[in-house]
Amino acid sequence: MTNSTNNWIECLKKETGLEAKEGTASLQYVLDVDKQEAHQTLAYLKRAGFGQLSLLTCIDWIEQGTFQLIFILMHWELGHHLIVRALLDRENPEFTTITDIYPGAAYYEREVYEFFGVHFRGSAVYQKPLFLERWDDMPPLRKDFDPQAYSDGKFPKREHPHVFKANVVEVTE
Amino acid sequence: MKEVKLFLGPQHPGMHGNYSVHMYVDGDMIKKARPTPGFLHRGFEKLMERRFWMGNLALIPRICVVEPDINEMVYAMGIEALADVDVPERAHWIRMIILELGRLAIHMMSIGGIGGPTGMYTATYWGIAQRDLILDLFEKITGARIYHMYIVPGGVRKDLPEGILEDLAKVLDQLEKNLPEYEELILRHPIIHTRIKDNILLPASVVWELGVTGIGMRSATGAKNDLRKVKPYARYDQVEFDVPTATYSDALTRMNLKYQEMHQSIRILRQVMEKMPPDGPVRTAFSPGSALRYTVPAGMVYTAVESSRGEYGYFIVSDGKEKPYRIAVRGASYAQGLLGIEKYLPGYRIDDASIWMDTMGVCSPEIDR
Amino acid sequence: MNRTKSMFSPIRAWEYLFREPVTLHKKDVFVNPREASDRYRGFHQNDLSLCIGCGTCSEICPTDAISMVAVEGLIHEEGKKDERPAFDYGRCSFCGLCVDICTSDSLCMSKEYIHLSQDPDSFFYLPDASGIHEKEADKGYQRDEVSELLDLVRQKMDQEDPSRKSSFVEIMKGYSKKEALEEAARCVACGICTDTCPANMNIPEYIRAVFDDDMEEGMRQIYKTNPLANVCGRICTHKCEEVCAISHRGEPVAIRWLKRYLVDHASEEDYEAGALSSVTAFVQGKVAVVGSGPSGLSCAYYLRTLGYEVSVYESQALPGGVIRYGGPEYRLPEASVLKDISMIEKAGVQFICNTKVGVDITLETLHAEYDAVFLGTGFSLSRPLKIPGYEHPDVLYAIPFLASVRDYLRDMGPIPVVDQKAVVIGGGNVAFDVARSLVRLQEKLYGTSCVHMAILESRDQMLADAEELEEGLEEGLQVHFAYGPQSISIVDDRIKGLHVTKVQSIFDAEGRFNPSYDQTDQKVLEGTQVYMAIGQMPEYAYLNDEMRDRVLTKRGLIAVTDGGQIEGYPWLFAGGDIVRGPDIINGVATGHQAAKAIDLWLQTKP
Hints:
The complex is a heterotrimer.
Chain A: H1 8-16, E1 21-22, E2 28-33, H2 35-47, E3 52-61, E4 66-75, E5 80-89, E6 94-96, H3 105-116, E7 119-121, H4 147-154
Parallel strand pairs in A: 2-5, 6-7
Antiparallel strand pairs in A: 1-2, 3-4, 4-5
Chain B: E1 4-8, E2 20-26, E3 29-36, H1 44-49, H2 69-83, H3 89-113, H4 115-118, H5 121-142, E4 151-152, E5 155-156, H6 164-187, H7 190-196, H8 204-210, H9 215-221, H10 227-230, H11 251-275, E6 299-307, E7 310-318, E8 326-330, H12 334-344, H13 350-360, H14 364-368
Antiparallel strand pairs in B: 1-2, 2-3, 4-5, 6-7, 7-8
Chain C: H1 26-30, E1 44-46, H2 56-60, E2 66-70, E3 83-88, H3 97-101, E4 107-109, E5 124-125, H4 177-184, H5 192-196, H6 203-212, H7 215-223, H8 229-235, H9 239-243, H10 255-265, H11 268-275, E6 286-290, H12 294-305, E7 309-313, H13 322-325, H14 334-346, E8 350-352, H15 363-369, E9 372-375, E10 381-382, E11 395-397, H16 398-409, E12 422-425, H17 429-446, E13 451-455, H18 466-474, E14 478-481, E15 483-491, E16 494-507, E17 513-526, E18 529-532, E19 536-537, H19 545-551, E20 565-566, E21 569-574, H20 577-580, H21 584-604
Parallel strand pairs in C: 6-7, 6-9, 7-8, 9-21, 11-18, 12-13, 12-18, 13-14
Antiparallel strand pairs in C: 1-4, 2-3, 3-5, 10-19, 15-16, 16-17, 20-21
């Protein structure tokens, strides 16, 4: 572990030219990286003290035609959270697996593939189904997936006659 | 010898919630384990994108059933950060009451819950009964026993009811009096003690590999990695409490840490009662207008709190409209509950599988969401 | 930890036999249920008489558990719908957001928490004020000011300070964008206002457009039912705000000011795109409109959207009627009127001014030249009060006075002759318009003002808007409530003042207008001019005697069918004041209805 002191921001800038900005909450930083340099940046950050991957997720910016991968890293000594963001092409969302850096990302990658359709090159398992059983539609967290339409098409609607008074509870011992 | 495939769950007395592990066993030994989540997948992240900022209040507690308040807290903290609103002082303290009561309730359930996988149901009954007294307090404060929907963005939903602090003090006294009894009955009980001591080990290297947080992390590394200390929220920086740690993490250590944390929670609650402002506002509006048109300024934020199982966070993205653009939930048991099971459950015996699940802190609803 | 225990230690467990159990007996769950806490969120209770059926609970419900159900025996009345919320407890999550946002304070939750039934339909339930079963239940969760989810306070609007009285500058300054967006955010889009608005304007829709900052959509929504957006954004009687759901517990949404915000802030392109989107080419017949007041303009505009060629006949030099010659400049600036009228002109309506139907051209001619004729001539005469001295030349009337003020302000006439002291008779909005215009002219001419108002009604019964009185007092009006004019005192051919007597009651025992006075309380309001503003009446120069007999009602209005068609003269339609009495938004509404009726009649005419 090198550079695990408070000045990881300066070291990061010196060594990679990337600048982490202050985030919306206290002790929180945001770092935008290119898809190509994401991998090496994450590896660097892990060495710099961000030993934990708290969350890997994705945002569908459908109007801009991009996906944004979000890596949230945690630096326990400093209590810093760092949000690393990388944009992917929505038409052809591809990324390299980060399980070699953060092994715990394996299931997050499966989840992001299942819910957004992002491919993780270099991972043998990311396409295995995780939460959704026998899913037959587009990845459901994409913005163009309409869950109401999906469920309306899949399940019948029940009509209720409305009552003013419910039946009295019958007590049986 | 031939491998046999067994299913642990989704319905199993030793499991918290509906969760399944496919185990490939050779005799009694687990050779391979495949976590199979999804039984409690309700699409919350998608649902939240389609509901008003306030409407989500009804969904979020359901993400973690037994410890619902952390959801409300991280959601509120995220919105407050995005909207840049200050929470009234008294609301901070009320939130701490709720959060620490929640911690007591889930630790009580968890300590009692060890009776499930070990087959000593008395422990479970006792734990649940004690938790119920805490739920009575919740009912008085929030109007509901399980899904409180009380911590709202900008503060809390209603001020504390009259006389609640006396009730709280009574419950704390009673709990403190009973805790040694529970320790003796549960943690030191031979049936349980022998089963969990030196069993289900969690080395520090595994903690970092998986990203385990909370008691798992603290019991293995000895570091005081508690978000209440590392980046204090609410008013945790104004109360004194210790973070119990250990450097050898077996199932018993982790149970013991929970037990010690309960004492710390009682200590925090006593200080809260003493230090909280006696009156004052408890809620500020985070947006003008009616709740149908509350908006949150565009931006993204990650907020996290210390749950009973570790770092529990929401990543909230707003595009400035009346509904969230995206909310991602970091369930605290994601790390150990998926990759952890797959890699580290093998090697244990079948009858230890549910102890593994229980003491590692695997909560299926927050994994599935 | 591993301490050795005594072999007798199990015996210790016997003590638990004598402890009081923390659990309940099973039978008590039903027979003697544990009472829930005071805030318990149990099954819902709804006071059906308080509930207005606005459906806000249904909107906020995160689980779609609430549907609005028509209830037999309830009628759809002003400010109340005939629907009430029904709860699907298969979906309800007992969050109580519906209670927190209830506009009428009718909804709460009870302490009841047990309902068992094998009939799933019994979980779909329309609550009333009692419990879910046929017995009373205690109230549980209720809204308080902390859990409030409505915004009860209206955005304040900047206004000119009282020194404004020396000019005709507009008093209300309008909302800024931020203020308008925040005001629009208060709306719950229940649509009760739409039902009450005479023109059934799409109020929630255009407020939504303000909230979304979509000006073009806002203009389109307004012009769907009202082509006098500027005028109604400033001087509408806003009946909508009286029934606003928010008004039950707070200040109503400033619907009128939001409409004004749209017209003031929309860019020219957005404005035109929204206002003219449904105007079509000339494809149908020709229609003449008599009178260019609100009803005439409205009728003409909507006929244009239906493809008719429209000519509007106006007796004055400028089109607009009451909006051009009536409303005072400080409420309704000329530019706003012009914007509305020019948009209607852009829609292809032709104006023929200085042409009085019945004098310069006869109704018969119009009938011969056009396929249909619409009458919207309004109340164009002031009603005189025949007290001693009323024929004196310094007794002046509201309508010509206000017209001369507006002509003066647009440099089309001389400054009206105003004395240093004047008395106004009347207590409606028009009387205040006269009095406050007088103040401004006096300030201009003499640097000081002195206007007395003799109002027959007491302060509580006052007919004018409260803000008229408030602002008028700020400007120095001397208002005399419950004083009835008796005579005008004239010395040496000059008016000295107005004799007034204290009013005891305005109506007699049968409810007829018949004021009684307290003769011991008399005074003289000093002034050398007396302005009468006690009401307006119509002028029917274009009706011949035969028509008068056939179409006029006892009250002097024109009898029409629903669409404004006049019986016996199917080609003739009417709207506005002469059908419903004076009110601008009524004029817009009847003009619109008549346009539709004219279209229907022309399309189905054999």
